[in-house]
Amino acid sequence: MNDARATWRAGVLFALAAFLSWGFVPIYFKQLVQVPAPEVLAHRIVWSVLFLGVYIALRKSFADTRDTLRNRRLVAGLMLSGALVAFNWLIFVWAVAHDRILETSLGYFITPLLNVVLGLCFLGERLRTLQWMAVGLAVFGTGYLTVAYGELPWVALLLGFSFGFYGLIRKQLPVKPVQGLFVETLLMLPVALGYLLWLASSNLGAFVHTDRATDWWLVGTGLVTALPLLWFINAARRMPLSTLGFFQYLAPSMSFMLAVFVYHEPFTHTQAVAFASIWLGLVLFSTDAVLWQRRRAESSLV
Questions:
Q1: Distance CA 81, CA 165 (A)
Q2: CB of 175 within 8 A of CB of 75?
Q3: Backbone CA torsion sign across 90, 96, 257, 153
Q4: What is the average pLDDT value for the chain, to the nearest integer?
Q5: How far apart are alpha carbons 210 and 258 in whole angstroms?
Q6: Distance CA 183, CA 80 (A)
Q7: What is the 3-state secondary structure (H, E, C) of 176-218?
Q8: What is the pTM of this model?
Q9: Which of 96, 88, 75, 84 is nearest to 33 (CA)?
Q10: Cα(249)–Cα(23) distance, integer angstroms
Q11: How many CB atoms are closer than 10 A to CB 65?
Q12: Which of 290, 295, 245, 284 is CA-nearest to residue 132?
């Protein structure tokens, strides 16, 4: 019993570390607003490959990585998922640099609800009543924003859909999380490295051409990418995914508070209505998840 409790507590600590770091990550990328988003993305890919490669070497798990690279189907799938996650990173970095952290928060709040819709459309999953209501509230919230402002909340939608499709693809690929991210970024490496070399040869890049602090911030993007994922994996190994799912709202909540209370982005009545609708949808979504897990547990005892 004590071992199980200690394992669960360790899982909670790892989950808090992962989701709090994802929630506070806008602060990190605010230090790089002077660097164009495509260049930040390229550095994020290059240094992620390096740090993940070191981690895999220390774990002596290159055999799994080699097997993944030899599987053409997996490589094709990871190339697509790598392109999606790179696009997601690009939009996020751009949004942070342009004072649109509130929209990134909205995007990651609606992602769980988008995942339900993607499961319905592509995996043949059926939605339960509360799930339909949750999705309906999310549609109402984004629709309300669109009508009020006269344009789609495209940052939120691009982040939500890119990450949702990323999860959909990764769910169907039999590859471990660390190896998957390493191979994804490795496949993006030639483009990222080529772009950085072109910038360097043209004296257009920020790296080693601005100041040492900026250089270290760029190098650190690899750790900012890799460490939260590793903490998340350790959390997932120690606690049920149904419990871990409740932590996923921590990151966009922290980003929301940073946007409003630290960076003083405008939070209008219209946005309040939209966020309230989506938050209510998430409450229904979470309630449905708890009730469904409870029914499954009861049926397994019969």
A1: 8
A2: no
A3: negative
A4: 88
A5: 27
A6: 11
A7: CHHHHHHHHHHHHHHHHHHHHHHHHHCCCCCCCCCCHHHHHHH
A8: 0.90
A9: 96
A10: 9
A11: 21
A12: 284
